Amino acid sequence: xxGRYVISSPPDVLRALLNYEEQPNFPPxxxxxxTQPVPIVRLAGGKRQFALVRWGLIPPWVNDPRVFSLLxxxxxxxxxxxxxxxxxxxxxRCLFPADGFYEWKADGAGKRPHFIRRKDRAPxxxxxxxxxxxxxxxxxxxxxxxxxxxxxxxxxxxxxRMPVILPPEAFDLWLDGAKVDAETAAALLxxxxxxxxxxxxxxxxxxxxxxDTPALIEPVSAAQAGDPEPVAAKRAPKKKDDGxxxxx
Length: 248
Prior knowledge:
The chain is mainly β. The protein has helices at 11-18, 86-91, 171-175, 182-186, 222-225, and strands spanning 5-7, 29-32, 37-44, 47-55, 73-75, 93-98, 100-107, 110-118, 124-134, 140-150, 161-163, 165-166, 197-201, 229-230. The strands form two sheets. Strands 3, 4, 5, 6, 9, 10, 11 and 12 form an eight-stranded mixed β-sheet that branches. Strands 1, 2, 7, 8, 13 and 14 form a six-stranded antiparallel β-sheet that branches. A hairpin with a 2-residue loop joins strand 7 and strand 8. The radius of gyration is 18 Å and the shape is globular.
């Protein structure tokens, strides 16, 4: 799955990669978390558009989002058929710019965090879906989820799922819901090549969302890492992961 990630490249670098016309100026973020505003790139009027949406998709048919579970991830295997994502998969596909993401490896009674990024340190884009929820008073809320798939062999020891990382040559196909049907787009939802990414164990400091500095992604030795986060220390029992799930 993908529950935290990093956006650290300068705005002009991300703009060059994703080819949108807007020129947003935003700071690097090292601990992007669900419910926060996050940048996405989508098609609007046939052109790529930069937009800020809430991370945690709300389907249009939800009556009260306050009691609806966050859908931060969407499983690639079921996005075509699952009611929460079916419409977005047809018409509202997007890209999430990123420089890396976090995963936690189970270790005895706790978990150790790892930072995962491209070996060449280049930014990339997750496949995503976005939606518009309209409230009873006509207010609109745009939200999005990151699509996940089976982890590749390089990351399987950390978790059995990973976000879908789309190559630049697939961006147009993924974004164009008007000309590219859901079944064709779904064929792009595959694991990243085994040699694309690297993972390093990092400090437990990433566990606290308020921590947001470059130090979070620095590799640490086993001695520096500290004890794994005990299960008893979790604030509340985690809901069953259905493969679903700010920035500024």
